[in-house]
């Protein structure tokens, strides 16, 4: 019987295990992506608190990919890839948009932004994961990369 993702001893496997799906630019994909993230990361051994954070970070990232990246264009897709390493999971969310610079996004904690109902997604994502990166793929779209470590800094500090 072939081993499923959760059965392979990660420490003995130098290559990350990869789960990849292609999603339609449709809001139903957001829920599917969140469920898949929780499922993959449950099998990878993350605890409930981390699963919740990973699920929310994927939820916000996929909404952004559909809405801001693909501009709700039904002919465009979002690719979601999980790379499971012994010490971390890396989650790649790729869209077919023209990208953005996260350093230029307004700070939602600035007083003039506090009452705005939008502009908090990336702030939340950053607080839920250990690394947040954006790669502009020069004509091929944009990839947001989230890294969640098994023993996050926040837990060590707690
Ligand atoms: N995948 C993406 N492609 C292009 N722009 C993006 C993407 N994700 C985020 N952005 C930009 O970053 C801004 C902040 O995103 P976010 O914090 O999620 O707030 P909101 O989605 O409510 O605007 C967006 O308004 C958009 O300009
Ligand atoms: Mg958003």
Protein topology:
Layout: E1 17-24, H1 28-43, H2 48-69, E2 77-84, E3 88-95, H3 121-128, E4 131-136, E5 142-149, H4 153-157
Antiparallel strand pairs: 1-2, 2-3, 3-5, 4-5
Helix pairs in contact: 1-2, 2-3
Descriptive report:
By secondary structure, the protein is α+β, with helices and mostly antiparallel strands. The protein has a single domain (17-157), classed as Histidine kinase-like ATPase, C-terminal domain (Heat Shock Protein 90, 2-Layer Sandwich), CATH 3.30.565.10. Strands 1-2-3-5-4 form a five-stranded antiparallel sheet, with helices on one face. 27% of the residues are buried. The protein contains four helices and five strands. α1 packs antiparallel against α2 and α2 runs antiparallel to α3.
For the report, how would you describe the main beta sheet?
5 strands, antiparallel
N-to-C order of helices and strands: EHHEEHEEH
User: Could you name the ranges where pLDDT drops below 50 across 5 or more consecutive residues?
Assistant: 1-8
Return the CATH architecture. Answer: 2-Layer Sandwich
Give a count of the beta strands, DSSP E runs of length 2 or more: 5
Sheet with most strands: strand arrangement: 1-2-3-5-4
Round the mean pLDDT to the nearest integer and report it. 89
The CATH class is: Alpha Beta
CATH fold node name: Heat Shock Protein 90
Q: Please tally the helical runs, counting DSSP H or I stretches of 4 or more residues.
A: 4
Gap between N and C termini, in Å? 42 Å
Helix/strand/pairing class, anyone? alpha+beta
């Amino acid at each position: 019987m072939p081993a499923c993702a959760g059965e392979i001893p990660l420490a003995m496997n130098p290559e990350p295990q990869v789960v990849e799906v292609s999603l339609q630019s449709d809001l139903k994909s957001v829920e599917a992506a969140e469920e898949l993230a929780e499922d993959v990361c449950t099998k990878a051994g993350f605890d409930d608190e981390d699963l919740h954070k990973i699920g929310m970070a994927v939820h916000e990232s996929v909404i952004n990919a559909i809405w801001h990246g693909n501009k709700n264009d039904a002919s465009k897709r979002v690719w979601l890839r999980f790379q499971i390493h012994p010490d971390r999971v890396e989650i790649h969310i790729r869209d077919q948009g023209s990208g953005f610079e996260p350093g230029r996004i307004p700070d939602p904690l600035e007083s003039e932004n506090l009452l705005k109902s939008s502009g908090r997604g990336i702030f939340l994502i950053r607080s839920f994961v250990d690394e947040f990166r954006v790669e502009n793929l020069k004509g091929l779209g944009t990839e947001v990369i989230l890294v969640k470590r098994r023993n996050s800094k926040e837990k060590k500090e707690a």
